[in-house]
Amino acid sequence: MTAAYSNDDQVYDVIIIGGGPAGCTAALYAVRAGLDTLVLDKGLTSGSLSMASKVANYPGIEGEMDGEELVRRMRRQAESFGAEFAQARVLGTLLEESPKQVQSTRGVDFARSVIVATGSMGRSSTVPGEEQLLGRGVSYCATCDGAFFRGETVAVAGNNDEALEEALFMARFAQQVYLLSQTRELQADESLVQEVMDQEHIVVFPATRVLEILGDEGVEGVRVRRQGQEETLAMTGVFLFLQGRKPITDFLGDQVSLSPDGCVEVDDQLQTRVDGVFAAGDVLCNHIKQVVIAAAEGARAAIAADRHLSGRESLRPDWA
């Protein structure tokens, strides 16, 4: 993935990967500390908080609020102080380079420090046929591979902002796009949902479960269950944006230490084994999943990154 760095390239003080409560709070604290901050996030509804219909125990929020609105407010607050947000899927990282490199669907960005706050909605299991046909019709990035399916029939499996954005992108190339949503209602921004519904090349299949991806040398179809019945849809490409409960760390490779459960391991300052790389939130798996705790860890990670960038040898707390 190595990209040639030149003096003309922008180098952020910190790149935050993930835009949930941990990522947004880290961005707020980082930019308030005067750090040039970029947040890379797959979409407003890609995290677990955005799927919560009611949040009633977050400090300062009276009554009930849906999770998507809470994330939106966190993001607006960080942006109001100067944090930059970009919707992109991170594909890989080079964390021991100087500056560090983060490759995403928007290109390569450079930073002096990185905070990983990607949460734990990754899948722990694959769809039968997925691994065998990966790169031969199965993809995780429509913006990367979409042009290879010009004039063909494909499926996008998922129901959030990221999946809908990718389905709309595929509609530029494919003759037919099946959007296979595992839920009856699409869990995405209303404007995106309307745009998908208005797109003549996209057909939405609600409450549809992908059972198997079919094909020998390449994708030939998908076996699904919908409305209580199994059926096979013929196609040549499948783009998977399904969710689970596993920490999302695929873009890290073996650069940082992971626990047997796939959680990012950090020290008491939330720093990984790589100097200048921190992690916060559900990707650590070390606490009950509460918004306030993830937000607090985001603040701690940003403070630690600031201390690291200031050149202190010790990251001792301010009160020490």
Topology:
Layout (H helix, E strand, L loop, with lengths): L10 E7 L3 H12 L4 E5 L25 H14 L3 E4 L2 E5 L5 E5 L2 E10 L21 E2 L2 H4 L7 E5 L3 H10 L5 E5 L9 H9 L3 E4 L2 E7 L6 E6 L2 E6 L2 E4 L36 E3 L11 H20 L10
Helix pairs in contact: 1-2, 1-6, 4-5
Task: Give a short overview.
With 320 residues, the protein is an alpha/beta fold. The protein has six helices and 15 strands. The chain has two domains: 11-122 and 245-310, FAD/NAD(P)-binding domain, CATH 3.50.50; 138-240, FAD/NAD(P)-binding domain.
Q: Would you state the CATH class of the largest domain? A: Alpha Beta
Q: Which of globular, elongated, flat, extended, rod-shaped describes the shape?
A: globular
Count of the domains: 2
Largest sheet: 7 strands, mixed
Number of helices: 6
Average pLDDT across residues?
A: 88
Question: What descriptive keywords fit this protein?
Answer:
alpha/beta; 6 helices; seven-stranded mixed sheet; disordered C terminus; FAD/NAD(P)-binding domain; five-stranded parallel sheet; 22% helix
Protein architecture, described:
By secondary structure, the protein is of the alpha/beta class. It folds into two domains: 11-122 and 245-310, FAD/NAD(P)-binding domain (3-Layer(bba) Sandwich), CATH 3.50.50; 138-240, FAD/NAD(P)-binding domain (3-Layer(bba) Sandwich). The chain contains six helices and 15 strands. It has helices spanning 21-32, 67-80, 142-145, 161-170, 190-198, 291-310, and strands at residues 11-17, 37-41, 84-87, 90-94, 100-104, 107-116, 138-139, 153-157, 176-180, 202-205, 208-214, 221-226, 229-234, 237-240, 277-279. The strands form three sheets. Strands 1, 2, 3, 4, 5, 6 and 15 form a seven-stranded mixed sheet that branches. β9 (176-180), α5 and β10 form a beta-alpha-beta unit.
